[in-house]
Amino acid sequence: MTDLLTRLMQLNADYAATIDDDRLEAWPDFFVADCLYKITSADNLRDGNEAGIVYADSRAMLADRVLALRRANIYERQTYRHIVGLPRMIDPAALRAETPFLVVRTMRDGRMDLFVAGRYLDRLHEDAGALRFRERIVVCDSARFDTLVAIPL
Amino acid sequence: MDQAYQAATAAPADLTRVPFHWYQDPALLRQEQTDIFEGPVWNYLCIESEIPTVGDWRTTFVGRMPVVVVRTEDASIAAFENRCLHRGALICFDNAGNSKDFTCVYHAWRYDLSGNLKSVAFGKGVNGKGGMPETFRVQDHATRKLRIATLNGIVFGTLSDATPPLEEFLGPDVLSALRRNASKKLLVIGRFTEVLPNNWKMYAENVRDTYHASLLHVFFATFRINRLSQGGGVTVSDNGACHVSTTLAPTEAVDNSYSGMRSVDDELRLSDPSMLETIDEHGDRVRQQIIGVFPSFAMQRTNNVLAIRQFVPKGIDSTDLNWVYLGYEDDTPELRKLRLKQLNLAGPAGFVSMEDGCIGNFVERGSVAAPDGVTLLEMGGAGVESQDTRATETAVRGFWQMWRRLMGI
Q1: For an interface test with B, which of A38, A39, A55, A142 has the most B Cβ atoms less than 10 Å from its Cβ?
Q2: CB burial string B152-161: b at 16+ within 10 A, e below
């Protein structure tokens, strides 16, 4: 358990650094091939609404999102700084965990905002000695987003 | 005011020019509240299935006016201004709920489900002292009520007695497109809000701007969801206020009309193309359809995405874009999954929609020092007639025709 929590903390730190350092091509590797990644909000989760603003049920869809951001989409240059809190196991037998996070977004012109607060609801998977996400549901505390969410959370 | 200035700020003679100060002047925002949103128009309020049982309510907005929409005792729908008649506080301050009546938290004035004042706390005073004057009668006081019209479960409201019937306001083509979208019971499957850093009218124009879709949005053109070379067109209602634009599935195996343009990236290949699979639910080959209802409602079908957008002005240069993601009650699990995956196109993180989220702000910033400069709307001519091409700005001009008529500008 302690060992698992330590490994999850390492995983979360690596995950955040991968996004914040703009190494997005490596981001899908944190997931198993038939993963579920969804960005939703606390209200939608409570109301049983299935839809998210990002919904990927395969690692390939995550790679496609990165490809679209790199090649297709128009948005102003911006970076995230994830501040990831301490994880807790909510169901150790099922490898289900929860981790709170904050994201500060810095725009090209230097404007900085506390962009999203929320929690990761994860189902982990031991994949040949590596810990990966079978499921990562990004539950944002608010369903209201400033302009656009281009970079993954 | 000198003559040159007056000439420069006078209303343009035709619909092909819009001065930038019409997006920038706070006085116009106040006038829009009374003349547009509270005027002879139909404002989107909610989906009927969001308030199925007696006492169910949701809060929404008509322009800047907070509104409660509620299922009443006789199973009909009422809507009223969310403002207590006493001190003006919000009567309901959450998104949704169920109540047998409404009591303002400030001084406990109580309203029935239709927004009629029923009682005033300590109206007779306490121990014979204080209280309201003898002449005060609760039945003399009622909140501002909206007249309701529903269309296959989509609820609209108006504050004006002069508003024509909803069907007439929409015109036959928009009406039939909406009826088709709502031909089965609609269910909300997600709600998100995108904060647009621009005047609300720029978004109202964007949904009517059939010219931009395949040019700004690489995803549309590359995957042939929406190209101007595909079949389709745009229909504008006679009053200019409402429109429906349609893009049909491509019929040609090869389409070189976008060769050399940024908008098409032939090297872009999806590793998991399953989100581009489409079920032709209505047998009409429609790949994308946008319906605009003046002033602040749009409904879209994109492949199997079904969504409503409501744009709510929050200030002269800030707009809340409320996304309501929809499915049908009888969706098979496969169809529902397809909707969830294709919704990656829509909303604040949408492969397509995120660009509409930022483009209005690019206009705001580009035009900030040009209040008397004009935007130029000459694609497809100068009129507001329906056209069998989407290389046109006819529906944008239709928006301005209605806006100018109601504003007297």
Answers
A1: A55
A2: ebbbbbbbbe
Cβ distance A49 to B188 less than 8 Å, yes or no, reads yes
Q: Test A147 with B357 for CB contact under 8 angstroms.
A: yes
CB under 8 Å to B127, separation ≥6 — which residues? none
Q: Which CATH superfamily is domain B43-148 in?
A: Rieske [2Fe-2S] iron-sulphur domain (2.102.10.10)
- Check A147 against B197: CB less than 8 A apart: yes
Q: Best mutation site among A145, A151, A153 for testing chain B: the one with the most B CBs within 10 Å? A: A145
pLDDT tier for residue B4 given thresholds of 50, 70 and 90? low
At B243, which amino acid appears? H
Min CA distance, A98 vs chain B (Å)? 22
pLDDT at B1: 45
The CA-CA-CA angle for residues B18, B22, B27, to 5°, reads 160
* Distance from the first to the final alpha carbon of chain A: 26
pTM of the complete model: 0.95
Q: Do B189 and A61 touch (CB under 8 A)?
A: no
Assign residue A81 the CATH number of its domain.
3.10.450.50
What is the value of ipTM here, to two decimals?
A: 0.96
State the burial class of residue A87 (Cβ atoms within 10 Å of its Cβ: 0-12, 13-18, 19+). buried
Domain count, chain A: 1
